[in-house]
Amino acid sequence: MTEEAEKPARVVVADDQTIVREGIVMLLGLLPGVEVVGAAGDGEEAVRLVAELAPDVVLMDLRMPRCDGVEATRRIRAEHPGTQVVVLTTYADDESLFPALRAGARGYLTKDAGGDEIVRAVHSVLSGDAGLSPSVQRRLLERLSVPEPEAAAPAAPPDGLTTRETEVLLLIADGLSNVEIARRLHVSTATVKTHINNLFAKTGLKDRAQAVRYAYGKGLVRPPAG
Predict the structure, then answer these.
(1) Which residues contact 152 (CB under 8 A, 6 or more apart)?
(2) CA distance 205 to 136
(3) Which among 131, 124, 196, 125 is positioned nearest to 167, based on CA atoms?
(4) What is the rounded CA–CA span in Å between residue 25 and residue 15?
(5) Is 3 left (phi over 0), alpha (psi -120 to 50) or beta?
(6) Is the pLDDT of residue 140 over 90?
(7) Top-confidence range, 65-69, 82-86, 206-210
(8) Rounded to a whole number, what is the largest CA-CA distance in the chain?
(9) Using CA atoms, how far apart are residues 54 and 122, in angstroms rounded to an integer?
(10) What are the UniProt keywords, alphabetically (predicted)?
(11) How large is the C-alpha radius of gyration of the chain?
(12) Other CB atoms closer than 10 Å to residue 24's CB: what's the count?
């Protein structure tokens, strides 16, 4: 094995819960093959640390304030393609899993994963493979093996949303940032923010994670069947 191959993977841990974040950092500090170089309390800080430290991998929680894990993953993969993302979250539901993978995450683990499993996932994504927990692998296989029933298109957008507000909602569910939505729709970012404020007010939503769950719950989008 070469000296380069023996170097530990440089990791940033992102989780908004201090006790969880510190626990992960402490756990990884006891294991060979990884070196924790930074810890972030939200997605915004994770993006900043990636820009400063250029880690190999970010262990990314999904539901965080300011900037959630899906948005942070999308930004990191777009702006710093040399850094891979492994999601480490409590949730393995479709509304969490598929947006994260669409945003560019190469690995997805739940927080019941052991230290050895986390290290394996880190090195798997650095080798070009997927770092998925067994439960997530089963979920993906189920989606690939069982065809999704065709959902009838709703007669009208729910909760009084306009057609444009619904378009913005679907693009949020697809993991796009405000800037990307503005480019896609050929409008200003200020206009996008206005649409988001309006749709949040009409639906009672508070953040982008809730918007993703809402879009799935209303049948506006479905996870890919394959």
Answers:
(1) none
(2) 27
(3) 196
(4) 10
(5) alpha
(6) no
(7) 82-86
(8) 62
(9) 15
(10) DNA-binding, Phosphoprotein, Transcription, Transcription regulation
(11) 18
(12) 23
CA pair distance 202, 160, nearest whole angstrom: 7
Amino acid at 144: L
Cα dist from 6 to 3, 67, 130, whole Å: 5, 34, 21
Of 62, 48, 158, 151, residue with least CA distance to 107:
62
DSSP calls for the chain: --HHHHSPEEEEEE-S-HHHHHHHHHHHHTSTTEEEEEEESSHHHHHHHHHHH--SEEEE-SS-SSS-HHHHHHHHHHH-TTSEEEEEES--SHHHHHHHHHHT-SEEEETT--HHHHHHHHHHHHTTS-EE-HHHHHHHHHHHHSPPPPPPPPSS-GGG--HHHHHHHHHHHTT--HHHHHHHHTS-HHHHHHHHHHHHHHHT--SHHHHHHHHHHTTS------
